[in-house]
């Protein structure tokens, strides 16, 4: 059987988005780079070699997306998971992965300092969240925040109380679905000042609230804009998004933008969004000769043309 590659997901570094492969190899994704791979089918055979610069991890049965396991451990039952799942974990591994998790409120004794932030994804779409101070802006890049500002920093539970205060007093959500983020990107204002306006207003309201935790040190509003980092300026409208990977499928396109986990690829069908959270659990092989610009995967087409950036 031919060698295959497994993707561990997309990470954001100081230099931009990076695909990480089983075994630790990393593939930087600069704009203009060709992203190309095939999805292994359920029969032996295929092409050996790299996938967009990926690293090999041996041989395995093909054609099924397997659970990626939890907390650094493989799934003991190698349970098949849905191609549409963005978590790529079976029910048991998903439960284990969230155990002792800050996101799941099961790690209340974490001694690290935390930032509280406001993240903006488009007009009328702002959320509040927390991230470890040591992570810097990585969490905001991973979420695809178009711009953001810190609100304050302090102990975990103080950060959590501030987050809850904003939800209760100002009705600021702590979660926004990725599908909504993609839709609103088409409506981004043209200037930094316009994109920063909602965060600046909400920041002022937030720090003026009564009940602000005493151990949380407020931080001034300094809006960081990611439009240039993501490459959202001047990009052609997307015509649709990949809904899942399937055995025998092929993706080949030029990377024109990346926001959060989303890659915007120029293909023969136009610009199509590929959520890289759909990749883990699949066995990937190099795209064959003559595949440039091809897209042989299920795609949900956008119902109406998107004006503006996407």
Walkthrough of the structure:
By secondary structure, this protein is α+β, with helices and mostly antiparallel strands. It has 6 helices and 16 strands. It has helices at 91-98, 138-143, 156-170, 178-184, 192-207, 227-230; strands at residues 7-13, 16-21, 26-28, 34-39, 114-122, 125-132, 147-154, 217-218, 224-225, 238-242, 250-259, 262-267, 270-275, 284-285, 295-296, 299-301. The strands form 3 sheets. Strands 4, 10, 11, 12, 13, 14, 15 and 16 form an 8-stranded mixed sheet that branches. β11 and β12 (262-267) form a beta hairpin. The chain starts with 6 loop residues before the first strand and ends in a 9-residue tail after the last strand. The model is unreliable at 44-60 and 305-310 (pLDDT under 50).
Give me the strand/helix succession. EEEEHEEHEHHHEEHEEEEEEE
What is the alpha-carbon Rg in Å? 20 Å
Largest sheet: 8 strands, mixed
Taking all residues together, what is the mean pLDDT? 87
Structural class: alpha+beta
What is the count of helical runs?
Answer: 6
Please give a quick description of this structure.
This protein is of the alpha+beta class. Helix content is 18%, strand content 27%.
Task: Give the key terms.
eight-stranded mixed beta sheet; alpha+beta; 310 residues; disordered C terminus; five-stranded antiparallel beta sheet; 6 helices
């Amino acid at each position: 059987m031919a060698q295959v590659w497994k993707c561990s997901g997309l990470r954001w570094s100081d230099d931009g988005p990076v695909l990480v492969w089983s075994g630790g190899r990393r593939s930087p994704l600069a704009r203009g780079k060709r992203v190309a791979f095939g999805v292994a089918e359920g029969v032996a055979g295929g092409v050996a070699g790299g996938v967009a610069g990926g690293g090999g991890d041996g041989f395995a049965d093909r054609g099924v997306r397997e659970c990626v396991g939890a907390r650094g451990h493989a799934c003991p039952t190698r349970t098949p998971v849905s191609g549409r799942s963005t978590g790529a974990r079976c029910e048991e591994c998903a439960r284990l992965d969230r155990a002792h998790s800050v996101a799941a409120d099961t790690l209340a004794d974490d001694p690290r300092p935390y930032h509280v932030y406001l993240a903006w994804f488009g007009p009328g779409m702002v959320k509040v969240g927390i991230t470890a101070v040591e992570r810097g802006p990585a969490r905001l890049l991973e979420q695809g925040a178009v711009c953001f500002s810190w609100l304050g920093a302090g102990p975990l539970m103080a950060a959590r109380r501030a987050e809850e205060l904003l939800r209760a007093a100002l009705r600021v959500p702590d979660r926004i679905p990725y599908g909504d983020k993609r839709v609103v990107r088409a409506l981004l204002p043209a200037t930094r000042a316009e994109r920063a306006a909602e965060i600046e207003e909400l920041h002022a309201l937030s720090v003026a609230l009564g009940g602000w935790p005493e151990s949380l040190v407020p931080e001034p509003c300094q809006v960081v804009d990611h439009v240039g980092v993501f490459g959202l300026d001047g990009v052609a409208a997307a015509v649709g998004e990949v809904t899942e990977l399937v055995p025998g499928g092929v993706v080949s396109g030029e990377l024109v933008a990346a926001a959060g986990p989303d890659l915007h690829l120029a293909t023969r069908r136009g610009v199509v969004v590929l959520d890289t959270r759909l990749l883990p659990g699949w066995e990937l092989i190099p795209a064959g000769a003559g595949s440039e610009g091809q897209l042989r995967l299920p795609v949900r087409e956008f119902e109406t043309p998107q004006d503006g950036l996407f």
